[in-house]
Amino acid sequence: MELVGRLSQKFVLMHVSGIPVRADVRWLAVLLVISGVIAGGIAPITGSLAVAIALGLSATLVFFVSIFIHEFSHAAVARMEGLRVVEIVLHPFGGLTRFASEPDSPRAEFRVAIAGPAASFVLAVVFGAAAAAAEAAGLNVLSRLMLTLAIGNLLVAAFNMFPGYPLDGGRVLRAYLWRTGRNLTDATILTGRSGQWIAAALIAFGILLVIARQDLFTGLWAVIVGIFLYDAAGSIIREMNSASQVRVQDVMKLPAAVEPERTIHELVENILPMNRQPVIPVARDKQLFGMLLLAEIRELDPKAWHSTKVADVMRPVTAEHFVDLETTLIEAREAARTNGIGAVCVLNAEGKLVGVFRG
Predict the structure, then answer these.
(1) What is the largest CA-CA distance in the chain?
(2) CA–CA dist 262, 3 (Å, integer)
(3) Measured on CA atoms in the order 7, 8, 14, 15, is the torsion positive or negative?
(4) Domains of the chain
(5) Residue 55 CB: number of other CB atoms within 10 A?
């Protein structure tokens, strides 16, 4: 789940594999509330309120570790797919993993999205087995706690598979729509609308719980989560619609091009120190010849830099490598995402290089 902009006042909990793990300050309040609910449920069994509170807090911490494992599963698979993970955030309604960019294929999108619910389901099975073992051993309190954690993880897996953005199931649906012919933008808008319907149903369900069953806690929680999801889904829809009005000329960067006859040594010594970018246009007098990837330069033997020309290792320009000034931001993103480079050059009406856009 990628609900990023609306989380504030975060603090760093730890770093795992170089990824900062942060928590929204409101997460602390939720931690205390859930601890209290669990403690209230086991207090009659323990016979001690202090013990019940300690166990409730411990179980809640284990549950949030489970949430972290859910999110880290997204992050681990994302790295396998070549995505850079910016951060993992624990917030009052669960967690999110933020990436520097979108996956570049439906397959990658599906794999990243499904990893979290799959991890939660596995955890539910593990805790369920632990609950059964504890009950067989006569450890009633431990059995209750393990069963609570099993149910909690199962609910996390099931709820996240609802087919609407920003839930993981929404991203699975987006991958399917993308795979069957929709572009990523249209697929995102459709899953966002689905997410709004799911959020509205959750809000209605919460209100019904309060009115029909006087279950204020569960009902209010459902309403709050529903509002949060509705706002997040609406945000991505607005972002996609807004992007359709923006032209690539409004967001492109001025190109730092290199001539095709230059050697790799000249590029590394004279150009890269001032213009280190992952994709470099190859042009002379603004006439585009190709695209040079910094990652591919790194694979060259430095001993060959003096004798290897840029033209020898560049990717010759094709129609998928450039767009015109009137191309929309959405179209430019799609082109950059699908051309295997992650960027497009921007040409003016005369076919001259005037900018570079990275997706």
Answers:
(1) 83
(2) 45
(3) positive
(4) 10-243 (no CATH), 248-358 (3.10.580.10)
(5) 22
Query: Per the structure block, which two tokens stand in for 215?
Result: 């279950």
Per-residue pLDDT of the chain (359 residues; tens, 9 = 90+): 444 444 457 788 889 999 999 988 888 888 888 888 888 888 888 878 888 899 989 999 999 999 999 999 999 999 999 888 989 988 877 888 988 778 888 999 999 999 999 999 999 999 999 999 999 998 988 999 999 999 999 999 999 999 999 899 999 999 999 999 888 888 999 999 999 999 999 999 999 999 998 888 888 888 989 998 999 999 989 888 877 778 888 888 887 888 889 888 888 888 777 777 788 888 888 888 988 888 888 888 888 888 888 888 888 888 888 888 888 887 888 788 777 788 888 998 888 898 888 86
Query: Do residues 114 and 172 touch, judged by C-beta distance below 8 A?
Result: yes
Distances (CA, A) of 85 to 74, 112, 355: 9, 12, 27
Contact indicator for 199, 230 with CB cutoff of 8 Å:
yes
pTM of the model: 0.74
Q: Is 47 left (phi over 0), alpha (psi -120 to 50) or beta?
A: left
